[in-house]
Specification:
Blueprint lengths: L17 H18 L3 H10 L20 H42 L3 H8 L1
Helix pairs in contact: 1-2
């Protein structure tokens, strides 16, 4: 039984090797989920073969609904502080995803047989 990443190589082959492709893909996705920071985003994107939609997660700023002027100002200051923290977290998550995406594709490319790498480049 294959137990490490070096034994799971994508190869140019026949339809009978489909099971190897599935096993290799699952192993690499499991490796990414164990090793990467914010790993769920990149693993889901690779599994679904789609880019992660950050627009849906983008923080939205709200305004105070307080009637009193002083209460509204206090609430707006709290909302601003929370919004800034959410934006900082969002930006960090998005940057980590972009870094993970590059690292994941590099990891995948290392798992390609040399002949397959050459075929993809040409």
């Amino acid at each position: 039984m294959k137990t490490n990443m070096a034994e799971h190589i994508y190869q140019i082959g026949t339809d009978r090797q489909w099971s190897d492709f599935v096993v290799n893909t699952k192993l690499i996705l499991n490796h990414i989920q164990r090793q990467f920071i914010h790993r769920k985003d990149i693993a889901t994107s690779l599994e679904n073969r789609t880019d992660h939609d950050f627009k849906a997660l983008e923080p939205r700023k709200t305004k105070s609904t307080a009637e009193d002027q002083d209460a509204r100002l206090d609430e707006d200051m709290s909302i601003d502080a929370i919004f800034k923290a959410e934006v900082a977290s969002f930006v960090k998550c998005e940057e980590t995803y972009k870094s993970n995406k590059g690292n994941a594709y590099a990891k995948l490319k290392k798992q390609f047989q040399r002949a397959l790498q050459n075929k993809i480049q040409n």
